Each structure stands twice: as structure tokens, then as C-alpha cells.
Amino acid sequence: MSKFWKLAIASVVSAVLIAGYSLRAEKRSEKTATLNSFDRTIIHNSKQMVDDGRQIFRFDTFGDESFWGGTLQLHKAIAGARLGGVGPGLSPATAAALGLKIDVDALPPSLVSAVKAGQVNLNDPAITVALLKLNAVVGVTGLFDGDGKLQSLGLQCALCHSRVDNSVTAPGIPAGVIGHRLDGWSNQDLNVGQIVALSPNLQPVADVLGTDVPTVKKVLNSWGPGKFDAELFLDGKAFRPDGKSAATLIPPAFGLAGVNLHTWTGAWGTVTYWNALVANLEMHGKGTFFDPRLDNAKQFPIAAANHLGHVKNDPDLITSKLPALHFYQLAIPAPKPPKGSFNEEAAKRGDELFSGKAQCTTCHTEPIWSEPGWNLHKGSEVCIDNFEANRAPDHRYRTTPLNGLWTHMKRGFYHDGRFPTLLDVVNHYDSCFNLGLSSGEKTDLVEYLKSLPSEEESDTSGIQ
Ligand code: HEC
Ligand code: HEC
Description:
The chain is mainly alpha-helical. The protein has 19 helices and 13 strands. Among the domains are: 58-190, no CATH class; 199-249, no CATH class; 344-460, Cytochrome Bc1 Complex, Chain D, domain 2 (Orthogonal Bundle). 41% of the residues lie in helices and 9% in strands. A hairpin with a 5-residue loop joins strand 2 and strand 3. The structure holds heme C (2 copies). Residues 155, 157, 159-161, 192, 228, 230-231, 248, 250-251, 253, 256, 262-265, 271, 274-275, 278-279, 283, 325, 329 line the site of one heme C.
């Protein structure tokens, strides 16, 4: 046999062998792809958890109506005197100005048409009550008696951590007020403080905080849109040393899977820790909550005096909901920015800078953009004060995950929104770390920040 034929035969044989081998490999992967019955149980469970979690996140009040309706009587201010409440009532126009959102999928088509045609009186509080009856106000549930009278009112997670898209616009109604729900997107328009300040009975809040009602109102009105102060009822600190409000931005509740510690100051704990704290201590639902760190009267005088680290209710309306709520939260991906919302070429250059000259990946680790592990830092490490950090158990700030920054550009960045734009953030780092970035490099970094989560990340995490 000539050398040529020997070689030819050898290569045919090896090709056949390789083909055979890869066929076997294919079979093996087919075999692992065949799910056994416990695998199917897992898949069924995950679907059930997401469905239950969505329901809880959107609609569960955890029994908190006993506080918002029962104690504060907030529903009476919404209904107004004409409908059995007090005062002028809350018109749809004012509700929209306070950042409340309407779920278009809860409205009958005839009402949507009337709204679009400008035939609905946006100054009539009766319309707000009708919307509550339809369960169409995102994050707010009205409770009605047999005669259809608004009797009480409860709040949900979705109030602060959902908004709606801008699918419905109508005369007098700006885009983003009526639309389809976007769970996990922080409500940057919501003025929680002003809404709570409408309550006819703020005396119990003043009592807990050891102050008077005018002071409570002053504090609530100091928060502004897109902010809330989750630590106020633990430490009673309403203002920073510079006199500005101590409230923090409402963060997104998406893109949190793989991130260890949560909230701006992190040290509170995991997503499920925070869910339990919020449902019990902030929303005033009825559950069980344990955290002896809150017995530290020096750091948390209000919490310690009110034993907030030792909450027990019977029945417990919260604990059984934590698993699905946790699961749902972790399942919400950070949304991809719309095409054209950033400069792709500049973002590519910004990507290089982010992990290179700008040293951002020292802390913001791809693709979760926080540190795997104990993701906390002292204020001095990022050249800021420790006021907010000192309101949390570990006196630190958490490295913020950066996916989906483009969804919350309205109220500034960092925990209190102190940097109005992403360029301000980059300028801050430039001087903090002496990076020596040129103005072009700074805008490249900004375009990169606007582009997150990037295409590849979205693909590997299955986000479409
Ligand atoms: C009144 C508005 C409001 C409501 C209602 C609310 N939150 Fe929040 N949420 C906030 C604010 C503000 C923070 C930041 C707190 C901080 O850092 O001090 C936060 C933080 C979080 C975080 C941490 C996000 C991150 O970046 O790590 C999660 C998760 C969360 N909330 C989930 C929930 C769930 C679940 C509910 C319902 C049980 C809920 N929230 C109800 C305002 C709210
Ligand atoms: C030493 C660790 C560290 C480094 C390095 C770092 N960051 Fe941060 N980053 C943080 C911490 C901590 C916060 C939260 C600060 C706060 O909330 O007050 C943060 C917050 C941010 C935010 C605000 C997110 C939001 O939702 O408000 C942006 C944007 C950001 N960083 C971008 C960058 C960029 C760009 C770089 C590189 C130039 C960088 N970071 C370098 C730790 C770091």
C-alpha cells in the first residue's frame, strides 16, 4: 500500500472512530437529559414557588391592614368625607402625582377605553375607590364591607418594588402611570412619606418615635419621591448630621440571585432575612421575627424599647410565605436595556476600563457586580461618610449590584441618591481612587454602566 493510501485509510478510520465516540457522547448527554421523577418534582416545585411568590409579592398584605387601615386609618383619607372617610379624599390625579401605579390588566376594557377617551374624572376620589375595588392600584389592597364601603387598607411589597410600563397614555395621564406590571423595578415616583402623611391618625407613630405628630409629618414629607427610611423605626434617626433626610432610595428587587448580603448596608442579611424584617417591622404584617441584634439599645433605641427583635403573632401570616417569596425574588432577572439606549462602541471601551484602569472590578465582580462572599465596605473605602452604614449591624455599605441601572436613573445613585448622575458617580471614583480618567474615558464608563446586564450575561442566565 502506498504511503498515500495508508494515510487515507488511517484518517477514514479515525474519522469513523471520532464519529462513533461523539455519537456515544451524544447518547450519554441524552441520558442525563432524561429526567427522573424527582427531577420532575424539582421542576414542578420551582414553577409552583414562582407562581406563589408572584402572588405574595403582588397581593399579600400579611395582615398589615390592621396597621394602615386599623391604626392609621389611611383608607379614610383616601375615600374622603363624601364616601364615609375624612377630608377631601385622594383623587386619581393626586394618587398619580404621589407615584401610585395602575395595573391595566385589572381594568375592564370599557374602563380602559373611557380613560383613553378622557371620559373619566381624574379629580374624583370615588374613581380611586373604584380602582381599589378592582384591585388595580399596584401594591395597595382596599377591603370593602357588604355595602361596598371602603373599610380598611393594606400594603404589599409591589407598592415600592414594582411599577408599570408606559403602554397606556391618556389625556391628563402621563406615561408610566397605567400599564402592565414590572415586578422588581423600583418605583422611583412613589412618595411613600407623603402618602403615609395623609393618615388621619399618626399619633401611634409619634408615640413609638417619642415625638409629636407635626414632627412625624415633617419627617415623612422630607423623604421625597423614590425614597423610604427603613431604619427610622429601629433607631429614630430622621435626619443626617447635615440636616438632610435620612431616607434611602428604594432599590430594585431584581437581579439579586448570587448576591450574598442585601439592602444598602448589607449586614442585615439575605433576601429572606430582609423579607421577614420588612413584612413584620416595616409593613406591620402579623408574623414572627427574631433578631437579638435589635436589643442593642445604643444603636437601635426604638427597636430595643419595643422588642422588635422578638415579634410573635398567632396566627403567623408571614412565615409560611417566606420560601415562595424568596424564590420569586431570586427568579426576577435584571432587565436588559433597550436597543439604542446606550452607545455600544463606547460601552465596549467602558468594559475594558471597568476591569482595567478604573479598577471597578476590585469590588463589582462580573456578572453579579458585587463580591462573591462578604460584600461589605466601610464608607472610607469609597470616600463617603458612615452615617447610614452606622445604622446597620456591621457599620458598612454593601457593594451595590449594578445590573439594570438604566431602570433607575431618576433619583440619583448611592444609598441616598447623593450623586445625581452616573457621570457624577464616575467623577467621584476618579477623585477617590486617583484614577486619572480622561473625560472620554469617563463617558465610556458611563455608557458601559448603562449597558448592564450585557448581552452575554443575559444569555447565560437565560434572560430573553
Ligand atoms: C415602603 C416601601 C417598601 C416596601 C413596601 C417594601 N420595600 Fe423592600 N426596600 C425598600 C427600601 C427603601 C429598601 C432599602 C432599605 C435599606 O437599605 O435600608 C428595600 C430593600 C429591599 C431589598 C434589598 C434589595 C437589594 O438591593 O439587596 C429586598 C430584597 C426587598 N426590599 C424586598 C421587599 C419585599 C419582599 C417586600 C415585601 C415583603 C418589600 N421589600 C417591601 C422599600 C420597600
Ligand atoms: C472598594 C469597593 C468598590 C470599588 C473599587 C468600586 N465600587 Fe462602586 N460601589 C461600592 C459600594 C460599597 C457602593 C455602595 C455605596 C452606597 O450605597 O453609598 C457602590 C456603588 C456604586 C454605584 C451606585 C449603584 C446604585 O444603584 O446607586 C455605581 C454606579 C458604582 N458603584 C460604580 C462603580 C464604578 C464605575 C467603579 C469603578 C470606577 C466602582 N463602582 C468601584 C464599592 C466599590
